[in-house]
Amino acid sequence: MKSIISTDNRIIKLAASLSEKKYRDREGAYMLEGPDMVREALENSGKARFIFIRAESAAGEAISIAEAAEARGLAVYELSEAVFEKISQTEAPQGIAAVMEKPESSCESFFRACEDKNVLVIDRVQDPGNIGTLIRSAEAAGFGGAVFIKGSADPFSAKAVRAASGSVGRLPLLFVQSDSDMLSLMREHGKRVFASAMESGTVYYKADIARNAAIVVGSEGSGASRCILDAADAILCIPMDGKTESLNAAVASGIIMFEARRQRNDR
């Protein structure tokens, strides 16, 4: 295990740069922090470029993960506290972090993974916490993958990765340029498009969304785009009591995704 004591080290500069999307895109990598996330990523065949442990925390679970990674031939570095703080993106670092390869899918591999399964479509959702929660919920509800329309928040940002709690490395993700690209791909691969909206529509549990459904969640401020609403096979609504006008995007989508799971399991 090598030691790094300078924040000017090229590996440290690379790791620190991953706090910004443009560098995550350029490097095709993102940061994971904490023993649970790093261990799980390695156990699930995640590709780690570098693993870092904080020298002052080099004991217990962190060191056992680092030793197991080093035994597999992975690059493991022990950092001084000052250097570890340079790369950390959390307020309370847990003593271990990793630079991971972004597990993006090709269009072909994405739809192979999603064959006969539902797909979540994220249409310009801006809050990273919502992004992570959506990915985590999609995996838990048995969805095959998630499609991101350009303009959505980055699922590999630190806050999104924490909220996804490991799902960002397991659920296939596909990135498309526009609404029309998404709609064309869904039609080509036999997915029916369902958009949720505050306006009147089909009550979500009355729609057949058990399989091959593309569930669209729109931005927090304006919902799904007009282009998607006009082209959707159906608009889904969630009946609500009281004076509440709308639900959080991740909450509303979670309700619909788990209804899809219920329908699928009841057949």
In terms of topology, how is this protein built?
Layout: E1 2-4, H1 10-17, H2 21-27, E2 29-33, H3 35-43, E3 48-54, H4 60-71, E4 76-79, H5 81-87, E5 96-101, H6 107-113, E6 119-123, H7 128-140, E7 145-149, H8 158-164, E8 173-176, H9 179-188, E9 192-196, E10 202-203, E11 213-218, H10 226-231, E12 234-237, H11 249-265
Parallel strand pairs: 1-4, 3-4, 6-7, 6-11, 7-8, 9-11, 9-12, 10-12
Antiparallel strand pairs: 2-5, 3-5
Helix pairs in contact: 3-4, 7-8, 7-11
Description:
The protein is α/β, with parallel strands linked by helices. The chain is built from eleven helices and twelve strands. Helix 3 (35-43) runs parallel beside helix 4 and helix 7 (128-140) runs parallel beside helix 8 (158-164). The radius of gyration is 20 Å and the shape is elongated.
